[in-house]
């Protein structure tokens, strides 16, 4: 299982990107939101991933946050929602917006996503009731994964200390936002630990 990629953004397309990790190019499919967050070609990136193995091939999906990946997993548990439809939904809504639409049973809103008709929107609204978490609480889980480098090392340090990936990601993202992109690894880990302990 490939859980995440850290490397250089080699190229992007309308629905995906290629990330060079040690000379090997991994092609990922991603939501428009994740692709926008990757930054320019040639930059260092950290992407969470989900590998889907089917008879006709393997597909690697990429995500900019732990919350987005978790929502993708839940969405693809619904009959009729494949990986590409789930990405179309995540390109239209943040995890928090989708949780709000599902909890209020707003089928018309869900149907705004590409490839989602009224029947599928109704199925999503019905089957995912109570599975996406309370709206408003998805903020921490939906925090963007910081760029690679010190932030990736800080996430790894927190994971080694026993923090769950979503907790580590949210804490490092908050610390990174407060300290700025030039923060040292030491400062980032210290502040992330304080934030994770709250």
From TrEMBL:
UniProt cross-references to InterPro entries, sorted A to Z: DNA_helicase_Holl-junc_RuvA_I, NA-bd_OB-fold, RuvA, RuvA_2-like, RuvA_C, RuvA_C_sf
Give every Holliday junction DNA helicase RuvA C-terminal domain span: 150-195
The domain comment in this protein's record states: Has three domains with a flexible linker between the domains II and III and assumes an 'L' shape. Domain III is highly mobile and contacts RuvB.
Q: What does this protein do?
A: The RuvA-RuvB-RuvC complex processes Holliday junction (HJ) DNA during genetic recombination and DNA repair, while the RuvA-RuvB complex plays an important role in the rescue of blocked DNA replication forks via replication fork reversal (RFR). RuvA specifically binds to HJ cruciform DNA, conferring on it an open structure. The RuvB hexamer acts as an ATP-dependent pump, pulling dsDNA into and through the RuvAB complex. HJ branch migration allows RuvC to scan DNA until it finds its consensus sequence, where it cleaves and resolves the cruciform DNA.
* Any Pfam family: RuvA_N
UniProt superkingdom: Bacteria
The UniProt annotation puts the region (Domain I) at 1-64
Protein name according to UniProt: Holliday junction branch migration complex subunit RuvA
**Per the record, which residues fall in region Domain III?**
148-198
Compartments where found: Cytoplasm
Family that this chain belongs to = Belongs to the RuvA family.
Which UniProt keywords are listed?
A: Cytoplasm, DNA damage, DNA recombination, DNA repair, DNA-binding
